[in-house]
Amino acid sequence: MARPVTIYGIPNCDTMKKARAWLDQHKVAHVFHDYRKDGIDKATLDGWVKRAGWEIVLNRTGTTFRALPDADKQGLTAAKAVKLMLAQPGMIKRPVLIAGADMLVGFKPDQYAALFG
């Protein structure tokens, strides 16, 4: 039985488009979760941070993070990063892919190929 695959992100992101196209081309059935439109709950985000680390999950190169006041960018901790990402989900690195017990953050074709064979 195939494991359920969910890809989290926002639809207009170029990296998301590449990841979703890869999944489609390789016939990997998946569900898309738009966390700007559908939101993201604290328990899910806490789980990602616990598994991957807040430094990986928080997208510090995006415009949403860069637009923050300097005070919000200073002294980051896991708790502070989660609070920022919950307030503005655009700060979550894209995509986050959950396939059964596996999790990938960001899109690298070789990682997707290794996961889905």
Tertiary shape: globular
Low-confidence runs (pLDDT<50, min 5 residues)? none
Roughly what is the average pLDDT, rounded to an integer? Answer: 94
Distance between the termini: 15 Å
Number of helices: 7
Relative strand content? 5-15%
**Quick one: how many beta strands?**
4
Which structural class do you get from the secondary structure elements?
alpha+beta
Q: What is the subunit organization of this protein?
A: single chain
Radius of gyration: 14 Å
Element order: H for helix, E for strand: EHEHHHHHEEH
Report on the biggest sheet: 4 strands, mixed
Strand order in the largest sheet: 2-1-3-4
Percent in helix: 40-55%
Explained architecture:
- It is a single chain.
- By secondary structure, the chain is α+β, with helices and mostly antiparallel strands.
- It is 45% helix and 15% strand.
- It is built from seven helices and four strands.
- The protein has a four-stranded mixed β-sheet with strand order 2-1-3-4, sandwiched between helices.
- A hairpin with a 2-residue loop joins strand 3 (96-99) and strand 4 (102-105).
- The protein is globular, with a radius of gyration of 14 Å.
- The two termini are 15 Å apart.
- The model has no long low-confidence stretch (mean pLDDT 94).
Short recap of the structure:
The chain is α+β, with helices and mostly antiparallel strands and 117 residues long.
SSE topology sketch:
Elements: E1 5-9, H1 14-25, E2 31-34, H2 42-52, H3 54-57, H4 63-66, H5 70-73, H6 78-87, E3 96-99, E4 102-105, H7 109-116
Parallel strand pairs: 1-2
Antiparallel strand pairs: 1-3, 3-4
